[in-house]
């Protein structure tokens, strides 16, 4: 009898121990699950805190529509003004509209990495329409001066680290290339030079926005990282640039060679020009012809580090996938082609 009681007690104790182990296991699993939930929430919160303001298509489109509506309203005001105050005030008003269009274009460039391709294409088409509308208003009220390069050839000289600083209180001058009104960006840069070598080194302290405009028969060498590059009206130039971690906007170039690495590159009014690119997204051309593309092959001391710091260390092959916004057919655009290997320049090294 005593032996039976002892066996019963042992069985009860064994059941109790198994139950305790089971409850302990459930508690550990519950604690682990809660820990994982907390870590996930923490990671999500961190991502939200570091996300850029427009990292959603809906918020971007709302901001784009607001800016576009403001520009259209300003253009309508110009068209309906039966008695403009004065020629100078109208010119100033058109310049402000041009700058607003440029800001809209920058908004698309800076947010294109997360936008659907359709939205990028639609936004850029809207910007192109705004530019054309601005040109119509400009041609109706103001005489248009066409830009031309001088034929005079001067002795080639090297200009190093002598970029032109503009007065930030002045508004950019509106000039025309072909039929497009091009705003001159007011960042530091090289301007109005002919037959010279222009050099600048950003490796020590990185660069911000930089502008190249009205250059003829020049060679430009920019080492180090830039935030953004703006190019206006270059002819017979060779341009070698380190990585740009923002965007490159090119307007009005002819018979040039460009070596560029950037997250986004937009080319407008380019003729008979070769582009050697490393780019994260598809290059965009518009109103261009005879442009050819090849991979980036520029080297200088520290270029690999600059490419890595700019997020451009990987060759994506996007340089060969060009979007022509003026060619809407399914067939290959006749305005651009891949540069044959036998016609490409060798690797360029900047000393």
TrEMBL record:
Where does it localize?
A: Cytoplasm
* Domain of life according to the entry: Eukaryota
Against SMART domains, the record matches this protein to: CARP (SM00673)
Q: Which GO terms describe its cellular component?
A: cytoplasm
Keyword Cytoplasm part of the UniProt annotation: yes
What range(s) does the C-CAP/cofactor C-like domain occupy? Answer: 168-327
Annotated GO molecular function terms are: tubulin binding
Q: Name one Pfam family in it.
A: TBCC
**Polar residues compositional bias, start-end:** 31-43
Keyword Chloroplast among record annotations: no
Identify the stretch(es) annotated as Disordered: 29-52
Keywords attached to this entry: Acetylation, Chaperone, Cytoplasm
Q: Which InterPro entries does the record cross-reference, listed alphabetically?
A: C-CAP_CF_C-like (IPR017901), CAP/MinC_C (IPR016098), CARP_motif (IPR006599), TBCC (IPR027684), TBCC_N (IPR031925), TBCC_N_sf (IPR038397), Tubulin-bd_cofactor_C_dom (IPR012945)
Q: Please state which protein family the record places this protein in.
A: Belongs to the TBCC family.
PANTHER family, per database record: TUBULIN FOLDING COFACTOR C, TUBULIN-SPECIFIC CHAPERONE C
**What is the protein's quaternary organization?**
Supercomplex made of cofactors A to E. Cofactors A and D function by capturing and stabilizing tubulin in a quasi-native conformation. Cofactor E binds to the cofactor D-tubulin complex; interaction with cofactor C then causes the release of tubulin polypeptides that are committed to the native state.
Q: What's this protein's name?
A: C-CAP/cofactor C-like domain-containing protein
């Amino acid at each position: 009898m005593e032996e039976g009681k002892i066996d019963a007690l042992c069985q009860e104790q064994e059941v109790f121990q198994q139950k305790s182990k089971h409850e302990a296991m459930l508690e550990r699993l519950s604690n682990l699950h809660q820990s994982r939930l907390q870590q996930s929430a923490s990671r999500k919160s961190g991502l939200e805190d570091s996300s850029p303001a427009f990292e959603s298509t809906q918020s971007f489109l709302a901001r784009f529509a607001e800016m576009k509506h403001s520009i259209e309203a300003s253009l309508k005001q110009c068209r309906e003004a039966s008695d403009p105050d004065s020629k100078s005030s109208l010119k100033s008003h058109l310049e402000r509209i041009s700058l607003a269009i440029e800001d809209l274009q920058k908004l698309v460039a800076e947010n294109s990495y997360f936008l659907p391709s359709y939205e990028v294409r639609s936004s850029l088409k809207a910007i192109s329409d705004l530019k054309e509308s601005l040109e119509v208003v400009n041609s109706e009220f103001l005489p248009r001066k066409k830009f031309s390069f001088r034929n005079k050839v001067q002795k080639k000289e090297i200009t190093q680290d002598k970029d032109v600083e503009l007065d930030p209180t002045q508004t950019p001058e509106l000039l025309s290339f072909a039929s497009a009104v091009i705003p001159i960006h007011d960042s530091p840069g090289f301007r109005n030079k002919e037959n010279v070598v222009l050099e600048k080194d950003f490796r020590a302290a990185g660069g911000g926005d930089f502008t190249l405009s009205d250059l003829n028969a020049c060679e430009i060498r920019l080492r180090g990282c830039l935030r953004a590059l703006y190019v206006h009206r270059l002819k017979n130039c060779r341009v070698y640039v380190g990585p740009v971690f923002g965007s490159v906007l090119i307007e009005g170039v002819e018979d040039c060679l460009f070596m560029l690495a950037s997250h986004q590159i937009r080319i407008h009014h380019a003729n008979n020009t070769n582009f050697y690119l490393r780019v994260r997204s598809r290059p965009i051309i518009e109103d261009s012809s005879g442009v050819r593309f090849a991979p980036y092959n520029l080297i200088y001391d520290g270029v690999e580090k600059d490419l890595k710091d700019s997020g451009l260390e990987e060759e994506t092959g996007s340089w060969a996938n060009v979007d022509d916004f003026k060619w809407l057919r399914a067939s290959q655009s006749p305005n651009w082609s891949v540069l044959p290997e036998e016609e490409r320049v060798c690797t360029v090294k900047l000393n």
